[in-house]
Write a structure and sequence with these properties.
mainly alpha, 75% helix
């Protein structure tokens, strides 16, 4: 069953990656007329990393032998939220003079609202893998998830540009730290 669901997840998350990479490439191509904003670019990389990490983490579901429609819809829904999150960073088509800072702040409520939703959805997804004995829940999951949720909530409620600069860097460091520690835990478990 997972092979069937895996194709759907791959298509949805692949579209999210395509949207992010296409948007970033277009900003590079239009660098003489577009106005890039470094916080926006860091969030592009944060979202790319989150999508890739989620895609990798979804592989644990391959070991589940008995699927329900609820789990199927839940996993497909999580992937869909990630696509919507990615789509908030760049418009589908944008003018050559796109002001990335203005666009980012015009869409910040949607972006951070979807980020909060994605992180909240991650809780039952991660715990579900643990309950089904597909993958142990990392010991540090709660700490890192709490820090990422704090970043997302601060981004949602704040209009302060300095705070947004700090939040994007903190989120990147938190996500990279979580992925590094999780990888080290897995490597240590196989020794």
């Amino acid at each position: 069953m997972f092979e069937y669901l895996g194709v759907l997840i791959s298509v949805i998350l692949g579209l999210a990656l395509t949207h992010l990479l296409r948007g970033l490439a277009k900003v590079i191509h239009l660098r003489r007329t577009a106005k890039p904003y470094w916080v926006h670019i860091v969030w592009t990389f944060n979202t790319l990393l989150y999508v890739l990490a989620l895609w990798w983490g979804m592989s644990s579901w391959n070991a589940l032998r008995s699927w329900t429609i609820e789990w199927y819809l839940f996993i497909a829904g999580y992937a869909s939220v990630m696509f919507m999150l990615a789509s908030m960073l760049y418009p589908p088509d944008f003018a050559e003079d796109l002001d990335c800072e203005a666009y980012f702040f015009a869409n910040k409520s949607w972006f951070f609202g979807l980020l909060v939703l994605a992180l909240v959805i991650d809780i039952p997804e991660t715990l579900g893998k643990g309950v089904a004995h597909l993958r142990d829940v990392p010991n540090h999951y709660l700490i890192f998830l709490s820090a990422m949720l704090l970043c997302a909530v601060l981004g949602l409620v704040s209009h302060n540009r300095r705070l947004h600069a700090a939040v994007c860097v903190l989120f990147m460091l938190t996500l990279a730290g979580y992925l590094t520690l999780t990888s080290l835990d897995r490597a240590a478990a196989h020794w």
